[in-house]
């Protein structure tokens, strides 16, 4: 009769070889991201991370175009608003409005590249740094709570996480931005269809796509297609980069 301890795994000394190909982890987390963003309850929580990236995209674009950033608010219904001062129309406002929906996907590609280069610690510190910068522009209590909680999770992984934990967390965040970015675009079009789109006078307030339509005189559906294409290409590119992980 074999002893009970003879079949016990030594978890502290497990290596990637004993666990199997690390690429399997990337695939498993991709499936998890699809499932969790597809389920209404979990998506309502996770979407806050996508909203942080979305509003951060607006903020960066506003600064790049020389607009004065007036603050960011994140709401409990997972919506957000980025306020900036400058000309109400023109290229600066168009670029600012355009930057929101692609931001989570493009950030996800950047993080995926760091995963592929085995720069996991860099990735986590970059996330913390971006959240710290964003925190200076938050103008409401829920927004402060959301950004601080997200940053605290990343810091906790940096301090206490082992190699497997940090890689898993990094891949999970990256997939959330990539898959969640696409889910947000799909929701955008569903909302436009349900509420009616376009504007017959003043500037629209319903969505970024309709605001872009008013600013550019190009139909809102065109901008939704652009957002969708960027998100889809980003998922493919991000997945390829993460699957090329080579420690």
UniProtKB/TrEMBL annotation:
The chain crosses the membrane at residues 20-38, 93-114, 120-135, 142-161, 167-186, 221-243. Keywords: Membrane, Transmembrane, Transmembrane helix. It comes from the Bacteria. InterPro entries: Peptidase_M50B-like (IPR049500). This is M50 family metallopeptidase. The lineage of its organism: Bacteria, Bacillati, Actinomycetota, Actinomycetes, Kineosporiales.
């Amino acid at each position: 009769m074999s002893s009970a301890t003879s079949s016990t795994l030594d978890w502290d000394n497990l290596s990637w070889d004993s666990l199997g190909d690390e690429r399997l982890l990337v695939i498993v987390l991709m499936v998890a991201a699809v499932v969790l963003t597809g389920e209404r309850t979990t998506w309502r929580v996770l979407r806050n991370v996508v909203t942080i990236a979305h509003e951060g995209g607006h903020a960066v674009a506003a600064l790049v175009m020389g607009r004065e950033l007036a603050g960011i608010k994140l709401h409990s219904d997972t919506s957000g608003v980025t306020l900036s001062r400058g000309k109400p129309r023109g290229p600066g406002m168009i670029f600012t409005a355009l930057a929101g929906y692609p931001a989570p996907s493009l950030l996800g590609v950047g993080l995926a590249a760091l995963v592929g280069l085995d720069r996991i610690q860099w990735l986590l510190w970059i996330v913390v740094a971006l959240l710290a910068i964003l925190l200076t522009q938050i103008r409401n209590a829920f927004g402060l709570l959301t950004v601080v909680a997200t940053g605290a999770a990343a810091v906790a992984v940096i301090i206490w996480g082992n190699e497997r934990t940090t890689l898993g967390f990094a891949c999970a965040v990256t997939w959330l931005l990539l898959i969640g970015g696409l889910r947000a675009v799909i929701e955008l079009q569903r909302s436009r269809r349900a509420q009616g789109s376009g504007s017959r006078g003043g500037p629209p307030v319903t969505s970024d796509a309709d605001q872009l339509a008013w600013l550019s005189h190009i139909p809102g559906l065109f901008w939704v297609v652009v957002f969708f294409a960027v998100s889809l290409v980003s998922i493919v590119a991000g997945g390829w980069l993460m699957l090329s992980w080579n420690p």
